[in-house]
Known about the structure:
- This protein has no helices and eleven strands.
- By secondary structure, it is mostly beta strands.
- It is about 0% helix and about 45% strand.
- The strands form two sheets. Strands 2, 4, 5, 6, 9, 10 and 11 form a seven-stranded mixed beta sheet that branches. Strands 1-3-8-7 form a four-stranded antiparallel beta sheet, with no helix packed on it.
Amino acid sequence: QVQLVESGGGLAQPGGSLRLSCEASGFTFSNYAMTWARQVPGKGIEWVSGIYGDGSNPRYAGVVKGRFSISRDNAKSTLYLQMNNLKAEDTGLYYCARSWSSVQIPQTPSEFDYIGQGTQVTVSS
Protein backbone atom coordinates (compact mmCIF):
# COMPACT_ATOMS: atom_id res chain seq x y z
CA GLN A 1 0.00 0.00 0.00
CA VAL A 2 1.03 3.62 -0.45
CA GLN A 3 3.04 4.97 2.46
CA LEU A 4 4.58 8.39 3.00
CA VAL A 5 6.80 8.79 6.05
CA GLU A 6 8.16 12.20 6.96
CA SER A 7 11.19 12.82 9.14
CA GLY A 8 13.69 15.52 9.98
CA GLY A 9 11.53 17.86 11.99
CA GLY A 10 12.55 19.26 15.33
CA LEU A 11 13.40 22.43 17.17
CA ALA A 12 15.35 25.14 15.38
CA GLN A 13 16.29 28.68 16.29
CA PRO A 14 15.16 31.60 14.15
CA GLY A 15 17.59 31.87 11.26
CA GLY A 16 18.45 28.20 11.52
CA SER A 17 17.96 25.34 9.10
CA LEU A 18 16.28 21.97 8.95
CA ARG A 19 16.02 19.35 6.22
CA LEU A 20 12.86 17.33 5.98
CA SER A 21 12.62 13.98 4.23
CA CYS A 22 9.64 12.00 2.99
CA GLU A 23 10.22 8.35 2.22
CA ALA A 24 7.68 6.90 -0.17
CA SER A 25 6.74 3.30 -0.81
CA GLY A 26 4.03 1.28 -2.46
CA PHE A 27 4.07 3.09 -5.81
CA THR A 28 6.41 4.21 -8.59
CA PHE A 29 7.67 7.42 -7.05
CA SER A 30 8.84 9.10 -10.26
CA ASN A 31 5.35 8.85 -11.77
CA TYR A 32 3.88 11.39 -9.35
CA ALA A 33 4.31 15.04 -8.50
CA MET A 34 4.79 15.63 -4.80
CA THR A 35 3.99 18.44 -2.42
CA TRP A 36 4.97 19.71 1.00
CA ALA A 37 2.25 21.32 3.07
CA ARG A 38 2.03 22.43 6.68
CA GLN A 39 -0.59 22.91 9.34
CA VAL A 40 -0.02 25.95 11.47
CA PRO A 41 -1.62 26.01 14.93
CA GLY A 42 -5.13 27.41 14.68
CA LYS A 43 -5.14 27.36 10.88
CA GLY A 44 -5.84 24.93 8.08
CA ILE A 45 -3.33 23.16 5.91
CA GLU A 46 -1.13 25.56 3.94
CA TRP A 47 0.65 24.56 0.76
CA VAL A 48 4.42 25.12 0.93
CA SER A 49 6.10 23.67 -2.14
CA GLY A 50 5.73 21.13 -4.91
CA ILE A 51 7.71 19.41 -7.64
CA TYR A 52 6.99 17.38 -10.75
CA GLY A 53 7.60 13.65 -10.88
CA ASP A 54 10.80 14.05 -12.90
CA GLY A 55 12.16 16.63 -10.46
CA SER A 56 11.46 19.62 -12.65
CA ASN A 57 9.37 22.71 -12.08
CA PRO A 58 9.83 23.32 -8.36
CA ARG A 59 7.25 25.76 -7.03
CA TYR A 60 7.00 27.63 -3.75
CA ALA A 61 4.49 29.56 -1.73
CA GLY A 62 5.43 33.22 -1.57
CA VAL A 63 6.12 33.12 2.16
CA VAL A 64 8.89 30.51 1.77
CA LYS A 65 10.31 31.41 -1.64
CA GLY A 66 14.01 32.10 -1.43
CA ARG A 67 14.33 30.29 1.90
CA PHE A 68 13.08 26.76 1.19
CA SER A 69 14.24 24.37 -1.52
CA ILE A 70 12.39 21.24 -2.63
CA SER A 71 14.11 18.30 -4.30
CA ARG A 72 13.63 14.60 -4.83
CA ASP A 73 15.75 11.50 -5.37
CA ASN A 74 13.66 9.16 -7.48
CA ALA A 75 16.20 6.35 -7.11
CA LYS A 76 15.62 6.49 -3.35
CA SER A 77 11.89 7.31 -3.56
CA THR A 78 12.51 10.24 -1.26
CA LEU A 79 11.30 13.83 -1.28
CA TYR A 80 13.22 16.57 0.53
CA LEU A 81 12.60 20.06 1.82
CA GLN A 82 15.62 22.13 2.77
CA MET A 83 14.48 24.94 5.02
CA ASN A 84 16.86 27.83 5.65
CA ASN A 85 16.52 31.12 7.49
CA LEU A 86 13.65 29.70 9.50
CA LYS A 87 11.15 32.03 11.12
CA ALA A 88 8.81 31.55 14.04
CA GLU A 89 5.88 31.55 11.63
CA ASP A 90 7.31 28.46 9.94
CA THR A 91 6.32 26.46 13.03
CA GLY A 92 3.86 23.74 12.18
CA LEU A 93 3.25 20.12 11.30
CA TYR A 94 4.80 19.44 7.90
CA TYR A 95 3.26 16.86 5.59
CA CYS A 96 4.26 15.42 2.28
CA ALA A 97 1.47 14.55 -0.12
CA ARG A 98 1.21 12.76 -3.42
CA SER A 99 -0.52 14.00 -6.52
CA TRP A 100 -2.62 11.89 -8.84
CA SER A 101 -0.41 12.98 -11.76
CA SER A 102 3.25 13.46 -12.61
CA VAL A 103 2.68 17.07 -13.66
CA GLN A 104 -0.07 18.33 -11.39
CA ILE A 105 1.22 19.82 -8.16
CA PRO A 106 -1.49 19.49 -5.51
CA GLN A 107 -1.97 22.67 -3.54
CA THR A 108 -5.15 22.01 -1.57
CA PRO A 109 -6.12 19.05 0.61
CA SER A 110 -8.79 18.04 -1.88
CA GLU A 111 -6.01 17.52 -4.43
CA PHE A 112 -3.87 15.33 -2.17
CA ASP A 113 -4.10 11.74 -3.33
CA TYR A 114 -2.18 10.47 -0.30
CA ILE A 115 -0.69 12.30 2.67
CA GLY A 116 1.76 11.28 5.37
CA GLN A 117 1.47 11.58 9.13
CA GLY A 118 3.63 14.67 9.35
CA THR A 119 6.75 15.82 11.16
CA GLN A 120 6.70 18.69 13.65
CA VAL A 121 8.84 21.76 13.05
CA THR A 122 9.18 24.28 15.87
CA VAL A 123 11.10 27.50 15.38
CA SER A 124 11.81 29.25 18.64
CA SER A 125 14.65 30.87 20.53
